[in-house]
Amino acid sequence: MKARGWLLLVLGALLVTPWLLPDYALEVAIQALILALFATAFNLVFAETGLLSFGHAAFFGAGAYTTALLLQRAGWPYLLTLPAAVVVAGLLALVIGFFSVRTSRIYFTMLTLAFAQLVWAVVHKWYSFTGGDNGITGLHPGALWGDARALYYLALVLFALGLAFVWRLHHAPFGYALRAIRDNQARAEAVGLSPFGYLLAAFTLSGALAGAAGFLQVAWQRSAFPDFLYWTKSAEAIIAAILGGAEAIFGPALGSLVFVELGAFVQSRTEHWPLVLGLVLLALVLFLPQGLAGLGGRRARD
Amino acid sequence: MLEINRVRKSFYGFLALDDVSLSVAPGSFHALVGPNGAGKTTLFNVVVGRYTPDSGEVKLAGRRITGWPTHRVVRSGLGISFQRAQAFLSMSVLENLTLAVLAQAGRTRAGMRPLASYDDARQRARQLLEWVGLAGRAREAAEALPLGDLKRVDIAMALAGDLQLLLLDEPLAGLSRRERREMVRFIEELLRGLGLTLLFTEHDTEAVLRLADRITVLHQGRVLAEGAPDEIKNDARVIEAFLGEADVAG
Known about the structure:
The complex is a heterodimer.
Chain A: H1 2-20, H2 23-49, H3 57-74, H4 81-100, H5 105-125, H6 127-130, H7 148-171, H8 173-183, H9 185-189, H10 195-221, H11 231-244, H12 251-267, H13 273-287
Helix pairs in contact in A: 1-7, 2-7, 2-10, 2-11, 2-12, 3-4, 3-5, 3-10, 4-5, 4-10, 7-8, 7-10, 8-10, 11-12
Chain B: E1 2-11, E2 14-24, E3 29-33, H1 40-47, E4 55-60, E5 63-64, H2 70-75, E6 78-81, H3 93-104, H4 119-131, H5 147-158, E7 165-169, H6 177-193, E8 198-201, H7 205-211, E9 214-219, E10 222-227, H8 229-233, H9 236-241
Parallel strand pairs in B: 3-8, 3-9, 6-7, 7-8
Antiparallel strand pairs in B: 1-2, 1-4, 4-5, 9-10
Helix pairs in contact in B: 3-4, 3-5, 4-5
């Protein structure tokens, strides 16, 4: 009952937020929601399987470019590009995952990084199709674009759906199977679980969800840039998850909120944001290894 | 129930298993013994699908399972319990068992219902825990269990499927004297009572002679002898091979 009360309170606050915030703060809040969805997607693989992907920017970017290209070249309505963005990002994750999830730990991390940088390099140089390093700019579709509140609610709905999906997965036998493989792969195989299939499925779902975040990013920036696929974008999800606490289901979202809000606050006062971020992360790792959610106690995951 | 026919397996020129054949009759308790390095673990790994033999075949209940991956072998009716007790430490004891029940039935892939709502699997999990004497600890975190109890969880997980054969790798390893006695009684009473077919490896001679219907002795990758416990105990080749060793089962 207590947890439900908190949930309703947070939900209520999130619903009234756009009516209370000035324009700039609302823009920042939308960015926080997009990162929250992206980090939650990343954390589906990180927390449930223990595999650290350093390549999720590829899926974020795949979703973004799918949306941008369909808007620019095919004139699709914005909302209709969502399923396409999710499917393309998911398919890319399926391919990268096929080669990566067999490897373990550091090799998995390096391989996902390498694949993502490869995709970035293609997007960065393929001027005739992706616009190269100029990106795809000046997108002017539908009614949603001028209205920050509408975009905020769209981001909120997608984030909530993404979080609910990850939460359901966590509690379903599928989530238990993933954690069983993480805990003890030999025992997992010996109860009849095939690690490859489960890890690939989790990676693909996670990539698809990251694609939905990319879809939102296009609306927020009215553009798509190769930066969306650069490794620093993957790092944002990792930082958000660690900042908020990867063990908690809402940890990455909490981390995203702090990361984006703190970033906006600090950047408006000094250009030394990376230094401040470094100090915050250092303090966190040393004093609060379970992230901000660790303040809420052990059962935060459930 | 289990047929191992002329299995050979070598590693970098070292012949770990040399033409090993073994047959486990339905309903029997079959022990696999031999000194360290005799090939027991290699044979165990060939049966569970971790190693593919260079030649020869393994059949479970008439089906050729040679080279199958572990999860497929398990789902065709092989229960596996490890030498070092293993469980999923992030979960409760009941969740470990419920997952094992669902996994061996191939029911973990689809569906978004919470694990806790699979009443039939939970009921089966509770029954398994009752069998191994852990019904009272269902809600405890697996990581909090002492080794002896963890071993029981491990064995209960091995029993979760529709079993043709149970494979126990050194069920007494690492246990205290009291826990060993309990485990032997447990294997005798529970597993016999269930009418299971059992293949096990064990270093404790006394326990082997007490539990096994048949014993296969491996030595330097070959089958040295096979027979009933009394025959093995008095087998001249076995005694000769193990001369100087403290016990026959080595």
